[in-house]
Each structure stands twice: as structure tokens, then as C-alpha cells.
């Protein structure tokens, strides 16, 4: 049995799944509630957040008839950062053994990320022996120098501490904390996407997250505070309409940014009118321009962040959009123009019995948290196979495998 919690700024989703004999997850319980007390992915009001989280869990437990106390949860904050580095170990022509690999992990533990930073993920991305690249398992190989590439994903320690405290008050035992962009990619990408190099852009309510995968590894991630609510705010300010009407206009008209309809007039309710009877008309292109401007800004920031990282432009050749805001159909065309490539919409894949209304881009993170469990299970299986060789060295190496890939 597996429970996952997707804690966002707009909604909190709880999935309960059974793991079948073929190691495939089947959803048996679903609950989601409007998110309160969460601002840009972090706790803003402890009591409101607790109520929302508890309510979502109770709904999923009632649906499934099961009770859980342990969950895999996501964390989304603009404090999430990728630290890409290469660590070097001298071999002097000897075989790589567990001590060499332990030295790498020791070097990672000695890295000072700052007193307000905490390590979320330590992901091995590459191995190079004497300039020979593409090595996936260096154990037992000979060489003079081993270079190990890592993506160390960190976040604000204070934000994580508040997050953990909130969940503990909800009597939630945390099995794993997964960075939201990592989970989004795991939830909606295909095997080919992971291999060839793909960037996932998850546009949430208040945050947009970036995750780049290549050779089946997460090699870059970033989060910044702009999302769908910013688009609604722009509409409310630009058209002098209440925020709930701005949300409605965004969903109703923003999902069809059709240039052929730009001269059509649409009714805009005026702010301050309690009865919502006072309206005025504007050309649809005015609304489209407001929406398009903010979406262009989001993708421009994504492109800039990737270009400023150590990644190259090849990682924007394959783009997948996910998250609720990505369902604005204009997003695909705008992203395609900015990145100069085809862009597709990413939805949850590989999850059985997922209700139709929860199989859209807004639930990719929830699916990814379940997939994270599958990743963990596969690594544990590798570890078990190694231990079965009845070798102390293999057992130690198996432990290193589990430490280096999550």
C-alpha cells in the first residue's frame, strides 16, 4: 500500500495505491481539496494548511477504505536549486572499489551548502574514467582517475522544517520528500523522453518548475514564483474585474487563443459591483494579449535559466508542458515559438484506475510521486540481487547504489 500527497498552492491531492504483482500501481483511493495556508508551495498558515491536508487524506481514506500514516510528499519552493558538480578520485591504475565510491559520498557530505540549505536529492548523473565517458557502473574498472558527476538538489532548511512540522501535526509520517519538478517529470514522461533529453515545464498556480532529464537521470531543476494565479491577477488588474471573474475569463477564453476571433467582443464584469450586473465589452484580443504576455514571460524565464546553467541548448529540443495552467491551449504554440521546437502536453502515464477527471496535466506530480516509489523499488531490487551474491563487497556496493540515485 502506498500513499502520496501533492501539496500545492491551489489544491492538495492525496492518492492511495496498491502495488500489483507486476510492480504496477493501481489507484484505490483519491481525495483532493482546495489548498489553504499554502503560499507558493510553502507553509503560510499552519492551521489552515493542516486542515486542508487532513481533509484530503480523509477523503482518500474514505474512498479506499484504508487508513495510512506514511506518505511520499512533494515540496515546491523557489528555494529549490540544482547544484551540478564533478567529484574526482585518483585511482593510480587500480580497480575502483567500495572505498573509492565511499570517498565520493564523503566529499558530498563535506560540502557546505549553507546553514539554511538541506539536501533533498543526491543524483548520480555520469561517470568518466580517464576521459572515457558514458560509464554507468564504474565498480571494478581500472583507471587513473574517476570523475563522478552529481546533481545535488537542495532547498531552504527552514521551509522544509515548517513543512515537516505541519505534516507531523497532521500525524503524517513522511517516507520521502520529492522536489516537485522531479515528481512532475516522473509522472508524465515516457521512457524515450528520459533517455534522449527532455525538459519538463510544470506551470502551477503560483510556481513554475523546470526539470531536465537525460540518460534516465535528473540533471537540472529550478523553481520560480510565477504561475496561473499571476495570469488571473493580470486580467483582474488590466480589465478592472474581480479575481474570480478573471479566473473564469482565463479558463473560458484563454483556452482558445484564436487570432481569427480577436475582434469578437466579450462581456467583462466590473469590479466593485456586488450584484455582478454592470459589465462592459472589450475585444477578445485585449484579453488574449494579457494572457499571452504573461505566458511569454514564463517561457522566457525558463529559457534564460536553462541557458545560464551548464546545460546546452539541446535540452530545449524536447519540451513537455504540464500542470493546470499548461492546459491553456495557447501555451503550446507560444512555447513552440520561444523554444523553436515542437512542444506537447504531458499527462499522468503508467497509473491504473486513474479517474478521467484526474488524468490531466494537473495531476502529473501526484503520478510522479507514485513513480518515485517504483524507482525506489527498482533500486532495492538491484540491491537485493547484489546481496544474493553473498559477498560483503557487493553488499556494500549495493548500499552505495541506493544512496546515489534518489
Full CATH superfamily name of the domain at 190-345: ATPase, nucleotide binding domain
SSE order in H/E notation? Answer: EEEEEHEEHEEEHEHHEEEHHEEHEHEHH
| CATH class identity of the domain at 190-345 | Alpha Beta
Give the helix/strand class.
alpha+beta
CATH architectural arrangement of the domain at 190-345: 2-Layer Sandwich
Q: Give the terminus-to-terminus CA distance.
A: 20 Å
The low-confidence parts are 382-398
Shape type: globular
- Give the DSSP E fraction (strand runs of 2 or more residues): 25-35%
Largest sheet: 5 strands, mixed
CATH topology of the domain at 190-345: Nucleotidyltransferase, domain 5
- Could you give the count of β-strands? 18
Question: What integer value in Å does the Rg equal?
Answer: 23 Å
Strand order of the largest sheet: 3-2-1-6-11
Give helix % range.
Answer: 25-40%
Give an account of the 3D structure.
With 406 residues, the chain is an alpha+beta fold. Among the domains are: 81-156, Dna Ligase, domain 1 (2-Layer Sandwich); 190-345, ATPase, nucleotide binding domain (Nucleotidyltransferase, domain 5). It has eleven helices and 18 strands. Helix 4 (180-188) packs across helix 10 (364-387), helix 7 crosses helix 8 (284-308) and helix 8 (284-308) packs across helix 9. The protein is globular. The model is unreliable at 382-398 (pLDDT under 50).
Amino acid at each position: 500500500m502506498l500513499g502520496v500527497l501533492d501539496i500545492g498552492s491551489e489544491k492538495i491531492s492525496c492518492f492511495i495505491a496498491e502495488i500489483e504483482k507486476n510492480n504496477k500501481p493501481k489507484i484505490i483511493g483519491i481525495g483532493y481539496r482546495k489548498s489553504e495556508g499554502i503560499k507558493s508551495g510553502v507553509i503560510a498558515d499552519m492551521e489552515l494548511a493542516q486542515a486542508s491536508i487532513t481533509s484530503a487524506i480523509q477523503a482518500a481514506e474514505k474512498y479506499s477504505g484504508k487508513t495510512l500514516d506514511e506518505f511520499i510528499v512533494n515540496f515546491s519552493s523557489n528555494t529549490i536549486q540544482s547544484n551540478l558538480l564533478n567529484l574526482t578520485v585518483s585511482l593510480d591504475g587500480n580497480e575502483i572499489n567500495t572505498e573509492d565510491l565511499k570517498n565520493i559520498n564523503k566529499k558530498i557530505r563535506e560540502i557546505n551548502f549553507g546553514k539554511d540549505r538541506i539536501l533533498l536529492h543526491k543524483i548520480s548523473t555520469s561517470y568518466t574514467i580517464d576521459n572515457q565517458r558514458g560509464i554507468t557502473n564504474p565498480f571494478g574498472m581500472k583507471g587513473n582517475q574517476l570523475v563522478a558527476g552529481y546533481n545535488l538538489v537542495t532547498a531552504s532548511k527552514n521551509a522544509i522544517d515548517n513543512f515537516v512540522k505541519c505534516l507531523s501535526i497532521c500525524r503524517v509520517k513522511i517516507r520521502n520528500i520529492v522536489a516537485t519538478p522531479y515528481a512532475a517529470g516522473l509522472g508524465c514522461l515516457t521512457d524515450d523522453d528520459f533517455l534522449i533529453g527532455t525538459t519538463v515545464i510544470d506551470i502551477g498556480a503560483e510556481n513554475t518548475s523546470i526539470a531536465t532529464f537525460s540518460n534516465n537521470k535528473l540533471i537540472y531543476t529550478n523553481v520560480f514564483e510565477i504561475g496561473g494565479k499571476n495570469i488571473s491577477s493580470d486580467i483582474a488588474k488590466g480589465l478592472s474585474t474581480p479575481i474570480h471573474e478573471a479566473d473564469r475569463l482565463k479558463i473560458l477564453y484563454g483556452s482558445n487563443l484564436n487570432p481569427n476571433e480577436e475582434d469578437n467582443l466579450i462581456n467583462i464584469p466590473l469590479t466593485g459591483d456586488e450584484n455582478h450586473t454592470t459589465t462592459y465589452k472589450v475585444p477578445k484580443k485585449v484579453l488574449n494579449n494579457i494572457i499571452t504576455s504573461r505566458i511569454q514571460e514564463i517561457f522566457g524565464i525558463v529559457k534564460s535559466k536553462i541557458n545560464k546553467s551548464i546545460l546546452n541548448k539541446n535540452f530545449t529540443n524536447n519540451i513537455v508542458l504540464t500542470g493546470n495552467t499548461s492546459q491553456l491551449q495557447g501555451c503550446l504554440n507560444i512555447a513552440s515559438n520561444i523554444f523553436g521546437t515542437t512542444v506537447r502536453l504531458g499527462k499522468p502515464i503508467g497509473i491504473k484506475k486513474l479517474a478521467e477527471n484526474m488524468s490531466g496535466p494537473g495531476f502529473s506530480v501526484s503520478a510522479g510521486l507514485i513513480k518515485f516509489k517504483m524507482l525506489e523499488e527498482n533500486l532495492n531490487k538491484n540491491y537485493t540481487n547484489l546481496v544474493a551474491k553473498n559477498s560483503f563487497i557487493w553488499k556494500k556496493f549495493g548500499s552505495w547504489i541506493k544512496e546515489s540515485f534518489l
